[in-house]
């Protein structure tokens, strides 16, 4: 009790959001992992946006002469194909760059659709309350217990595989988390005095939602969407790996791992690099999202400071002891 | 307690009904089971005969009632691929999947509690930073990729373990470890976070004021308190493993479980087998949910039984 | 005078926050004699709880003891290297009960197990004997049906009953000193009186010394022998309870008494002390009460030390002057 009591009562209030963007950047640079994460995110977004300009080759261009070339630093590698080529002579680097495009598009569109659907349902349930609320939330409960990927596979099998089928199915199976979050925030915000006051003085429901409730939802919703984005990336990769997602000749990291699988023992780079692309993407997003979550929460920030302080003190003590 | 179980069962039935309705809509209304299940070369007469055989010529409501009735009696039709009742195939493969999950999740549970606890004792310390790094990597690695990398390293290069298939205990090691990494990462982070939370609660101050050592406080006091959230997250992880991760891992390691069977069924257009798998897994998920709720209530005396 | 049980000498505690270092305790010295009841009063943030937690070794990150000494019967109690030895003292010879009985008990352990635990640890009782002892203790703190109640969980107890359980744990090993940190603040008024009565009764029976931390002067008046008044991380006045109430020397003590209902017989109206305590990020070097003090002047900007005045000690160069006379 004592510590929080003190910091709460005796320190001048620390502004929750840093006034200048410059100080946010300096704070980000302080956390090396998060800064590197953000740098990678920006790099991947850049590659995805400018794939046609950045990629050295057409990802689908085959070349029988240059089949299964290893990466440049290996004995038989050439500078023409930095990360080597696959069994059809296609450039691995170019395929990874174009794959970023597929992955980010599917992830972004799915997140947007699912978040929109979830937010609307959540707002509706939280705002109307009563019977509507319990019916909607029961629906969420039921759908949450559906057998995830298996059901996706069944749907894809029936509808035929493809990017848009995948986006549609992933959206329909991922909206529930948003609905739960939004509904939770709405029903707790509605009980705060300022919203009650707004309702008492006769604000119309639409105004209450848009002026008073929505601003409270944006930050947690964004954090959730970022984390969900990584789940979508992993799910897309898995479904494409199984052969039910993105179809050739289009590219996707999961698909590339699957097609490299047959050459696992003679051309390790075919599986390794697309897989690494997935790992780096998800890891970067997680690192950055984690930092963002802590930084936008004053209490968490104080805790992070305290932890760093203890670690510093412990190291200093050890140095003195040694 | 009995009333709670009954209510929970009722909710379970709702879930299964929801799955039934979804599957019905997807397979009968959106898709065309005849086109899906018969080869392209099938004649018009063959198609009509097949449609009649599975009742597609009946009104929609009759079809749905028959569909529900079949499921209630566990009659999912014959697997086209295996040419025997689909449910038989499911029950034959299910134990393999359960074995894999038990090994993988078991390892994750066993390792995560000590790792998370040690990390929580010294947040920012060496063990903590190491655990968190491995955890973040674990959450970022797609299991199909991890499995392939593990095959290259441990089976092909080092030749310590078999690459795939099922048979000896050695066959189980790589798939189980691959399956365990994501849950392990998630469990460890959860144990660490809730342990740090618990250690800041007033009752821990009381325990310290009693003169108890940190190890005893951890073992006797806080562990008990994180058990309830741990149960619920491990339930979730069990459910996602059962309905997702196993499909991928079994495919990579050619492990003859339900997940691999599902992929094979889809590749062969074997809709009846796929339906049987989806329903059995849905049943299992509902069952796990109920068992977990009962367990949580048994652990936490505060929970009212409603 | 016999050797004091507990002696705190020039104790400094600070908390490292993002905004800077908060100096929560700035040179606190006090002592507790065997069998006496010492009240520590002050508003929230004055450092009374931090003092208690420092004694119990409960100062956690981001806080730390940055100077001074805590002696238990002449032996050092706090510091990096003595914690192991001190563990046999905490819970055995010095015990503590906390402000909020609703959260201070482990919600998932039975009351019996939580009481038995401490006697098993410190007195080497086996399980059966510990349980027997736990039942005796519950009866001793006035909980009926002890045998049955041992198997119950905290949520089955009311707030007052839980505080009784905390007290039972506190006296389980027949300690020499019990520190009670706002033991009744979270309870209903009627229950408060019962708990205080119980503490007084136990003290008489066991010859226990009690440090009672509170912001409520009324409680101090009823229960304590001696009082220490804290303000902004320092002790500003100490003395026997009668002397302090009849003739408070420090302007802050005078203001505190004037603003407490039912204590000041002379005044009919209650008056508040204007202003707020100083922030402890950059505490003033002189008297911390100066900005709110009606009689303070330039001379009060110099550090004020506790000095003997009458039967107590005061940290005010104008000790004894009536600070608030003209305010009425």
Write the layout of secondary structure elements.
The complex is a heterotrimer of chains A (322), B (306) and C (328).
Chain A: H1 2-10, H2 21-30, H3 32-49, H4 51-54, H5 92-128, H6 130-144, H7 148-159, H8 163-174, H9 176-190, H10 193-200, H11 205-242, H12 253-260, H13 269-295, H14 298-321
Helix pairs in contact in A: 3-5, 3-13, 5-6, 5-8, 5-9, 5-11, 5-13, 7-8, 9-11, 10-11, 11-12, 11-13, 12-13
Chain B: H1 2-30, H2 33-37, H3 44-53, H4 60-72, E1 78-79, E2 84-85, H5 86-121, H6 126-140, H7 143-157, H8 169-199, H9 202-209, H10 214-253, H11 258-267, H12 271-299
Antiparallel strand pairs in B: 1-2
Helix pairs in contact in B: 1-4, 1-12, 5-6, 5-8, 5-10, 5-12, 6-8, 7-8, 7-10, 8-10, 10-11, 10-12, 11-12
Chain C: E1 6-17, E2 20-32, E3 37-41, H1 48-55, E4 63-72, E5 75-76, H2 83-86, E6 94-97, H3 111-123, H4 127-140, H5 146-149, H6 159-170, E7 177-181, H7 189-206, E8 209-214, H8 217-223, E9 226-231, E10 234-240, H9 241-246, H10 251-258, E11 307-309, E12 312-314
Parallel strand pairs in C: 3-8, 3-9, 6-7, 7-8
Antiparallel strand pairs in C: 1-2, 1-4, 4-5, 9-10, 10-12, 11-12
Helix pairs in contact in C: 3-4, 4-6, 6-7
Walk me through the structure:
The complex is a heterotrimer of chains A (322), B (306) and C (328). Chain A has one domain (21-317): MetI-like (MetI-like fold), CATH 1.10.3720. Helix content of chain A is 74%, strand content 0%. Chain A has 14 helices and no strands. The radius of gyration of chain A is 24 Å and the shape is globular. Chain A starts with a helix and ends with a helix. By secondary structure, chain B is mainly alpha-helical. Chain B has helices at residues 2-30, 33-37, 44-53, 60-72, 86-121, 126-140, 143-157, 169-199, 202-209, 214-253, 258-267, 271-299, and strands spanning 78-79, 84-85. A two-stranded antiparallel sheet of chain B has the order 1-2. In chain B, strand 1 (78-79) and strand 2 (84-85) form a beta hairpin. Chain C is α/β, with parallel strands linked by helices. Chain C has ten helices and twelve strands. Chains in contact: A-B, A-C, B-C. At the B-C interface, helix 9 and helix 10 of B face helix 3 of C.
């Amino acid at each position: 009790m004592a510590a929080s009591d003190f910091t709460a009562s005796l320190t001048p209030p620390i502004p929750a959001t840093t006034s200048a963007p410059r100080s946010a950047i300096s704070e980000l640079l302080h956390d090396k992992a998060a800064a590197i994460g953000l740098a990678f995110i920006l790099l991947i977004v850049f590659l995805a946006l400018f794939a046609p300009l950045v990629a050295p080759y057409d990802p689908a261009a085959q070349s029988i002469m240059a089949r299964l070339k290893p990466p440049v630093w290996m004995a038989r590698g050439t500078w023409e194909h930095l990360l080597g080529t696959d069994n059809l002579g296609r450039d691995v680097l170019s395929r990874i760059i174009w794959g970023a495009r597929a992955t980010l598009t599917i992830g972004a569109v799915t997140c947007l659709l699912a978040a929109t659907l979830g937010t609307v349902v959540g707002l509706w349930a939280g705002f109307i309350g009563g019977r509507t609320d319990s019916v909607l939330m029961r629906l969420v409960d039921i759908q949450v217990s559906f057998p995830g990927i298996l059901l996706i596979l069944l749907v894809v099998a029936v509808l035929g595989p493809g990017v848009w089928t995948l986006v549609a199915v992933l959206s329909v199976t991922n909206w529930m988390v948003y609905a739960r979050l939004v509904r939770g925030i709405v029903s707790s915000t509605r009980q705060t005095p300022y919203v009650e006051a707004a309702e008492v003085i006769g604000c119309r429901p639409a105004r209450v939602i848009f002026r008073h409730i929505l601003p409270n939802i944006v930050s947690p919703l964004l954090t959730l969407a970022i984390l969900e984005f990584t789940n979508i990336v992993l799910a897309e990769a898995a479904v494409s790996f199984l052969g039910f997602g993105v179809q050739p000749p289009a590219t996707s990291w999961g698909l590339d791992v699957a097609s490299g699988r047959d050459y696992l023992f003679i051309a390790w780079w075919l599986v390794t690099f697309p897989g690494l692309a997935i790992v780096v993407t998800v890891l970067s997003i997680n690192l950055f999202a984690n930092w963002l979550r802590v930084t936008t929460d004053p209490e968490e920030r104080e805790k992070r400071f305290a932890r760093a302080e203890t670690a510093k003190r412990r190291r200093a003590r050890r140095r003195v002891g040694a | 307690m009995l009333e709670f179980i009954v209510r929970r069962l009722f909710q379970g039935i709702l879930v299964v009904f929801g799955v039934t309705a979804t599957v019905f809509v997807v397979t009968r209304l959106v898709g065309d089971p005849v086109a899906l299940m018969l080869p392209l070369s099938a004649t018009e007469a063959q198609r009509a005969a097949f449609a009649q055989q599975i009742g597609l010529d009946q009104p929609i409501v009759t079809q749905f009632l028959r569909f529900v009735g079949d499921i209630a009696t566990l009659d999912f039709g014959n697997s086209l691929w295996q040419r025997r009742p689909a449910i038989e195939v499911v029950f034959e493969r299910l134990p393999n999947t359960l074995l894999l999950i038990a090994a993988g999740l078991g390892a994750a549970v066993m390792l995560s509690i000590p790792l998370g606890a040690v990390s929580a004792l010294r947040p920012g310390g060496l063990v903590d930073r190491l655990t968190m790094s491995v955890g973040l990597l674990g959450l970022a690695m797609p299991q199909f990729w991890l499995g392939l990398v593990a095959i290259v390293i441990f089976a092909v290069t080092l030749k310590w373990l078999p690459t795939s298939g099922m048979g000896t205990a050695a066959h189980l090691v790589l798939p189980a470890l691959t399956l365990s990494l994501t849950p392990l990462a998630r469990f460890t982070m959860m144990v660490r976070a809730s342990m740090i939370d618990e250690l800041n609660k007033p009752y821990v101050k009381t325990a310290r004021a009693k003169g108890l050592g940190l190890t005893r406080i951890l073992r006797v006091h806080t562990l008990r308190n994180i058990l309830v959230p741990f149960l619920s997250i491990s339930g979730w992880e069990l459910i996602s493993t059962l309905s997702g991760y196993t499909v991928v891992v079994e495919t990579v390691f050619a492990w003859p479980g339900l997940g691999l069977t599902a992929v094979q069924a889809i590749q062969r257009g074997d809709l009846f087998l796929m339906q049987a798998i989806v329903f059995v897994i849905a049943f299992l998920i509902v069952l796990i949910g109920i068992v977990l709720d009962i367990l949580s209530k048994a652990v936490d005396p505060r929970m009212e039984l409603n | 005078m016999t050797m004091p049980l507990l002696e705190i000498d020039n104790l400094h505690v600070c908390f490292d926050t993002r905004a800077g270092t908060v100096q929560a305790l700035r040179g606190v010295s006090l002592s507790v004699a065997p069998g006496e009841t010492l009240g520590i009063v002050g508003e929230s943030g004055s450092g009374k709880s931090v003092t208690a937690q420092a004694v119990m070794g409960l100062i956690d990150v981001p806080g730390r003891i940055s100077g001074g000494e805590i002696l238990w019967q002449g032996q050092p109690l706090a510091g990096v290297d003595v914690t192991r030895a001190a563990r046999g003292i905490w819970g055995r010879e010095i015990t503590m009960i906390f402000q909020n009985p609703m959260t201070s008990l482990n919600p998932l352990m039975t009351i019996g197990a939580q009481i038995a635990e401490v006697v098993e640890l410190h007195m080497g009782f086996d399980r059966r004997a510990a349980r027997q002892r736990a039942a005796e203790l519950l009866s001793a703190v006035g909980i009926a049906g002890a045998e049955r109640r041992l198997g119950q969980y905290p949520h089955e107890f009311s707030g007052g009953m839980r505080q009784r359980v905390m007290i039972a744990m506190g006296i389980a090993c027949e300690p020499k000193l019990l520190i009670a940190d706002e033991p009744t603040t979270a309870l209903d008024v009627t229950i408060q009186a019962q708990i205080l009565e119980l503490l007084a009764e136990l003290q008489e029976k066991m010859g226990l010394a009690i440090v009672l931390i509170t912001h409520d002067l009324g409680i101090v008046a009823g229960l304590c022998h001696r009082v220490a008044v804290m303000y902004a991380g320092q002790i500003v006045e100490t003395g026997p309870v009668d002397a302090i109430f009849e003739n408070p020397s420090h302007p802050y003590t005078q203001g505190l008494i004037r603003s407490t209902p039912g204590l000041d017989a002379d005044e009919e109206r209650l008056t508040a002390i204007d202003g707020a305590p100083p922030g402890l990020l950059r505490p003033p070097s002189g008297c911390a009460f100066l900005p709110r003090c009606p009689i303070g002047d330039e001379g009060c900007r110099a550090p004020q030390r506790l000095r003997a005045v009458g039967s107590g000690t005061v940290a005010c160069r104008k000790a004894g002057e009536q600070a608030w006379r003209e305010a009425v």
